What we know:
By secondary structure, this protein is mostly helical. The protein has a domain at about 105-275. It has helices spanning about 5-25, 70-75, 110-115, 120-155, 165-205, 210-220, 240-250, 265-270, 275-285, 300-305; strands spanning about 105-110, 225. Helix 1 (about 5-25) packs parallel to helix 5 and helix 4 packs antiparallel against helix 5 (about 165-205). The radius of gyration is 38 Å and the shape is extended. The chain starts with a helix and ends with a helix. About 10% of the residues are buried.
Amino acid sequence: MVMTLTSLKRTAKVSALLGAFVGTALGSAVPTAHAQSANGGWFVPKTAQPEAPRPAPRRVVEQPVQLPEEEQQAAPEAPRAPPVLPLPPVPTPPVLAKSTTPPPVVVGVINVQAVMQMSSAQQEIQQVLGARRDHLAQAVQHEEAAWREEAQKLQSQARSLTADQIQLRERHLQERRAKDQREFGNQARILQEAAQVAYHQIERELEQPNGIIASVAGSHGMNLVLHSEQVVLHVGEHDITDEVIAQLNKTLPHVFIPADGVDPEQVAKSGKMPTTADEERNAAPEPAQTPAAPAQPQSVLRQQH
């Protein structure tokens, strides 16, 4: 069978497209073998390359570098002394009156990682969102296999297709790849934001000013709670981890997780529940209100006229 030059060009073009898109689908770069070297751009085995005779090494006699007379006569500059700069006066702070003494420190410690691991709500999040993540990964792998099969089919049929047919099918493959990236990227974003919504409920329940950690610490008279990773030594009575776990599972056994495929951003726009924007707005300090300027008295000249 005689292959024409046009068929060769089509096959090479489709092979290049297949290599580029399969590399993108697999998420890794496909190494391209370049048969080029310094011998005119063609690969020549080392055994076939005659080794050129090496020139005899020449003895280089170092000559002393002659500096200009001006540089030889110039003496090295002395280090510059620190500059003397102005020292503007600063006001002396006023002496403050004695205020109330803070209460003695009663320290407690907590292992937040252990609390999260033993939380029934956190286990629910892992089970529900883990299943969605696995389903999305399987869908991506299935689509990659289908796309790769279509690209290989185009490569095998390239010799029997016209240039316009090849170009049309190439464009369809490119559009399919772009569509997959948009759809799967959007699904991954929805999954990530659903996890943020779910985990933030546990964080708020634990860490808000009237949350579980503050409640358990207050019941023991503790006014300072540290992470256990930051403490070198403590007694068992200082650790409130188990009590926090028990209260968390009792107060928040389940969390709200957006339904599968439901965009959390659309849920926020529906107005059915508060949003993170409301939380940030409430946490922001109120701007200091400047006192209103006293009313200016009416001019005496205007009163006379």
